[in-house]
TrEMBL record:
Keywords: Amino-acid biosynthesis, Decarboxylase, Lyase, Lysine biosynthesis, Pyridoxal phosphate
EC number: 4.1.1.20
GO molecular function annotations of the record: diaminopimelate decarboxylase activity
Binding site residues for substrate: 290, 327, 331, 359, 387
HAMAP family: LysA
Protein known as: Diaminopimelate decarboxylase
Entry cofactors: pyridoxal 5'-phosphate
Reaction catalysed by this enzyme: meso-2,6-diaminopimelate + H(+) = L-lysine + CO2
Positions that bind pyridoxal 5'-phosphate: 245, 287-290, 387
Top-level class of the enzyme under EC nomenclature: lyase
Pathway: Amino-acid biosynthesis; L-lysine biosynthesis via DAP pathway; L-lysine from DL-2,6-diaminopimelate: step 1/1
Subunit structure, interactors included: Homodimer.
Length: 438
């Protein structure tokens, strides 16, 4: 997919770069991101929304992969940015991302985070609960500032069951509940707060969603609520943010729609349901994360050991694993992979790909068809661009890999590989434990 091909050496290439050479040049494990594909996904969203004729913002959900170079691409492509912590906010600000296009999410923003965002002049807060609403108003008052907010509501749509059960989502740590009146109460409260400017409403129904029905149902509920709010409180929402969650293809089991179809379903539903309530059609914002960066990522590993348990299983072990991709261990997520240096060799056996961490559950792929892999072969796991680097850890004090962006045959490091010194950079030995004190 993307700009991946196989060259005349039988090597996988990504963005015009030979993956085997990338592995030699930068070492493994290595996250390789196809920059052209990231930009293509950004443009698919922007173009689909432009075609709708509605006012819109596409906010990249930076949690999926938040590094400064990625913030630069999101900015260049005209996207906004969704951040959920001071760390993501700091990354964006340091990358020079326009602060008025940054949206701050989270169910437990600390006072320090709120102050940092207020000082920076953030575009809007997505307010999650009553405690935050009051705190935000107080802190903004201290600073003599007004703040734009969206209310995060739980629409009662559970996108992962095929029935879209309407109460499924009520037991959630996120947002104001639509069903029990707390969302209405939130708007009433906010209306009376001096520093709060009500911009609109936000709903996120889940992640890795393939069907449009859940989104349509969320729009219907949000439109109904907006109409109720207008009647009861005389407040009109200018913005409806429908969150992220647009699915991608990790393996043949996944059946996502093209980006344009999700966008069209949403914008059509917005026009239909808001018009039904004689409501001025609001701006539409979305927050895709995975579908911007997921399929642009490939992780390269070097194959190390091989273990054959006759009649039971065969393991190949790579020089990374759950520390750079926790998703298989955490969610049972499935991935596809190939030998990057022998891309034309036919599959000969089924293997389990294991990582190098001290944990039996450290597996990346359970049943991968591969040629007989040798020590030193380069394994390329595809679709690792979202929630891989972002969720990487130093378990076993394994160093986190480098990230390179590839484009038109050029490879640029955007995150350096961690060094041994990085591993101990925050360690402190108290004087009474120092070797000299012995
Ligand atoms: N907006 C909100 C409010 C969210 O909570 C999320 C994801 C997104 C946008 C972006 O969703 P996306 O388009 O990426 O599906 N670690 C998990 C995914 C967690 C998603 C959390 N929220 C994974 O690796 O699958």
């Amino acid at each position: 997919h993307g700009t991946s091909t196989i060259n005349d050496k039988g090597h996988l290439t990504i963005g015009g770069c030979d993956a085997t050479e990338l592995a030699q040049q930068f070492g493994t494990p290595l996250y390789v991101m196809d920059e052209a594909l990231i930009r293509q996904r950004c443009r698919e969203y922007m173009e689909a929304f432009r075609a709708s004729g509605l006012q819109f913002q596409v906010a990249y959900a930076s949690k999926a992969f938040c590094v400064m170079a990625m913030c630069r691409i999101a900015d260049e492509e005209g996207l906004s940015l969704d951040v959920v912590s001071d760390g993501e906010l700091y990354t964006a600000l340091k990358a020079g991302f326009p602060v008025e296009r940054i949206h701050f999410h989270g169910n437990n923003k600390t006072p320090q985070e709120i102050e940092m965002a207020l000082d920076a002049g953030i575009g809007c807060f997505v307010v999650d609960n009553f405690v935050e609403l009051q705190l935000l108003n107080e802190l903004a008052k201290d600073k003599g500032k007004k703040v734009n907010i969206l209310f995060r509501i739980t629409p009662g749509v559970e996108a992962h069951t095929h029935e879209f059960i309407s109460t499924g989502q009520t037991d959630s740590k996120f947002g104001f509940d639509l069903g029990n009146g707390s969302a209405m109460e939130a708007v009433r409260t906010a209306k009376a707060l001096s520093q709060i400017e009500i911009l609109g409403i936000h709903s996120h129904i889940g992640s890795q969603i393939f069907e449009v029905e859940g989104f349509k149902m969320a729009v219907e509920k949000v439109a109904g609520f907006a109409a109720d709010v207008r009647n009861e409180l005389d407040v009109t929402f200018q913005v409806v943010n429908l969150g992220g969650g647009f699915g991608i293809r990790y393996t043949g089991e996944d059946t996502p729609l093209p980006v344009s179809q999700y966008v069209q379903a949403i914008t059509d539903a917005v026009k239909e349901y808001f018009t039904q309530h004689q409501y001025p059609v609001p701006q539409i914002w979305v927050e895709p994360g995975r579908s911007i960066v997921g399929d642009a990522g490939t992780t390269l590993y070097t194959v190390g050991t091989y273990k054959d348990i006759p009649g039971v299983n065969k393991y190949i072990a790579v020089d990374g694993g759950m520390t750079d991709n926790i998703r298989p261990a955490l969610y049972g997520s499935k991935y596809e992979a190939m030998l990057a240096n022998r891309a034309n060799d036919p599959a000969e056996e089924t293997v389990t790909v294991a990582g190098k961490a001290c944990e039996s559950g450290d597996k990346l792929i359970w049943d991968l068809e591969l040629p007989r892999a040798n020590t030193g072969d380069i394994l390329a796991v595809s679709c690792t661009g979202a929630y891989n680097y972002a969720m990487a850890s130093n378990y076993n004090r394994i160093r986190r890999p480098a990230v390179v962006f590839v484009k038109d045959g050029q490879a640029d490091v955007v995150v350096e590989r961690e060094s041994h010194d990085d591993i101990i950079v925050n360690d402190v030995i108290p004087a009474r434990l120092s070797k000299e004190a012995l």
